[in-house]
Each structure stands twice: as structure tokens, then as C-alpha cells.
């Protein structure tokens, strides 16, 4: 039994509260693989869970943090041995079981990924759920026959974690990326990540018509709401819109026209419940041909566990820029 620090989230008759606490490894959710965490990262979902602004946890109390990477301390599953470098994203962390914002995490062996050759532990957490989600979107779009010659890919919420990693990953995979962002002051950085063009989200002139001139071969929408409504009429025939986010709202208006006239596909992207074989495929890509080239630039912040609440506030205000890595050492 080891005592350690964890960012623990409670919700009971006294309401929501969360903060650093000391706990024992014996008190962690059950699992086969005990990991000493080296790094985790902050995602929008973590901000919702940590502040109580979104109902992410399905039981309380739990340690926050949907991502974690570190070294195995003990394993009852022979697939893992002490000292192995591993990572885990989603898979119930900070939802149904204790998450990664702690010095130790006990993981389910089914969802524990050996760190792929070509990635460091810190790099894997700069990528984290955000990069995994961007890569899952690309995989789904390519499975549905998206090709670079269909036209540029619009990426909304481009300055956020998913957005920045998506710019890097999609451009590396050969697509011309058009970044849509509400932060024109960062357009130079978005171009440096691989964006061919940048569009100010506040200057978007969506017509509101059911169909408009096709402008994008496809899109990764991390915003949802009116952004999704506006993008669908602008997609070239048989292009795909991968949707992963809701920072801009959960409801959207559309008509059947983009779907029945242009054969546009709307693809849902749900990283948390991704099947193990698809996870393995994605992490292999992320460590090789889709490995983001600008991870150092994308990791804009490195914080300690105690600094999590300030980061949550920034994210929920829409002020996030790039990825925040949590250093547990
Ligand atoms: P970030 O907070 O890092 O980025 C979100 C970005 O969205 C902001 O930087 C901003 O970009 C834009 N944005 C924020 N608020 C608004 C708003 N009100 N209207 C329009 N745009 C807004 O979050 P992440 O990148 O981590 O996540 C992005 C979205 O994807 C979130 O909704 C998150 O919940 C979701 N997500 C979903 C996953 C899944 O599996 N489905 C997995 C991971 C994330 P800018 O200023 O550049 O426009």
C-alpha cells in the first residue's frame, strides 16, 4: 500500500467539490495493472468533470483525468511487467473508474496500451485523448473514402487541443487544412502547425441556405451547434463531416439536402468507447506515419496537479490554446 496525491471529485448532498487529497493505492478502482503516473493531460471533458459544469462521472467519488501515461509498478496480467511504459485514454477513466490526475492509477489490462515504439511518455500525453480523437476522425473519414483530392478539410475549434493536433495530423496525412478559429492572433501558429488557410470564426458568413457553393472536401467539427449547421451545406459531394465536440452547443439545424443531393456523410467520433483493435491501429499511426510533427509547439503548458482548477477555468471560457500536460514527477 502506498500513500499518494490525487485530484479527487466528489458530488453528494453537499454538492460538487474537487481538489487534491491523499489516498492509498488500496482505495483505487480495481484493475490488473498498477501504474505510477508520469504524465497526464487536460481535455475539455476534464474541465467539465473537475468543475461540475458537466455530468461526466457516473459515480462518485473518483479521481479526475481521462488520460494517463506512466510505468507499471505491479501487474496481475502476464501481458505487463514492472517497468513497462504504458498509456491509457478514455476507457472509463474519470467516468466509471479512478482517472489519471493522481500519482498512481490502477488500470484495466484490456484498455492498457503498451507505449508504442516511436513515442515518449510525455509525447503520448501531449497527444492524449485530443490527438487520439483527431486521428480517430481521420481514420473514420478515410474508411468512408475521404481523399485529399476531394478538397480542403475544414477544422473548427482549431486553436484548441483537438484542433491543433488535427491540423498537424491531417496535413501530415496529405490533406490541405483550413483552420476555423476565433483567435486570429494565433493564425501564425496555426499556419506553422500545417494550416494552409485560416478563417476567423467570428467573420464566418454562413448563408443559412440548405445548400451553398461547395467549399470543403470534408470537415472535422470540434465545436458543434451552429458551426455544424453552417458547415454541412459547404461540403463537396461525398465528403465527410466528422463531429466530435459540443463547445458551441448540442443542438444543430439542418436539412436533408446535403445528405440526399451531395451524399455528404456525418460521422460521429466517440473516443472513449473505441474498440481495442481500433485503438491499437490509431496509436500505431500516431507513433509513425501520423505522428504530429509539432508536438513541442502544441504543448503550450506543463502544470502540476495543484494547478488543474485554473486550467479548467481557462478551457471552459474558450481561452484554451494547444495542450496542457500534467507532470506528475
Ligand atoms: P479545447 O478547450 O482545447 O478547445 C475547444 C476550442 O473550441 C476552443 O479553443 C475554441 O477554439 C473553440 N470554442 C470554444 N468555445 C466555443 C464556442 N462557444 N463557440 C465556438 N467555438 C468555441 O477543447 P478540446 O480541443 O479538448 O475539445 C474540443 C471539443 O471536442 C470539446 O467539445 C470536447 O468535449 C470534444 N471532445 C470530444 C471527444 C470525443 O470523443 N467525442 C474527445 C475529445 C474532445 P477557437 O477559438 O480556435 O475557435
Structure description:
This protein is α/β, with parallel strands linked by helices and 329 residues long. The protein folds into 2 domains: 3-115 and 294-327, Alpha-Beta Complex (Quinone Oxidoreductase, Chain A, domain 1); 130-268, Rossmann fold. Helix content is 26%, strand content 27%. The protein contains 9 helices and 16 strands. Strands 3, 5, 6, 7, 8, 15 and 16 form a 7-stranded mixed sheet that branches. Strands 11-10-9-12-13-14 form a 6-stranded parallel sheet. β15, α9 and β16 form a beta-alpha-beta unit. The longest helix has 23 residues, at 121-143. It starts with a strand and ends with a strand. Bound molecules: NADPH dihydro-nicotinamide-adenine-dinucleotide phosphate. Residues 43-45, 129-130, 133, 157-163, 181-183, 201, 222-223, 244-248, 269-272, 315, 318, 320 line the site of NADPH dihydro-nicotinamide-adenine-dinucleotide phosphate (NDP). The site of NADPH dihydro-nicotinamide-adenine-dinucleotide phosphate has 31 residues, from α1, α2 and α3. This is Putative quinone oxidoreductase, YhdH/YhfP family protein. Pfam families: ADH_N, ADH_zinc_N. InterPro entries: Acrylyl-CoA_reductase_AcuI, ADH-like_C, ADH-like_N, ER, GroES-like_sf, NAD(P)-bd_dom_sf, Zn-ADH-like_protein.
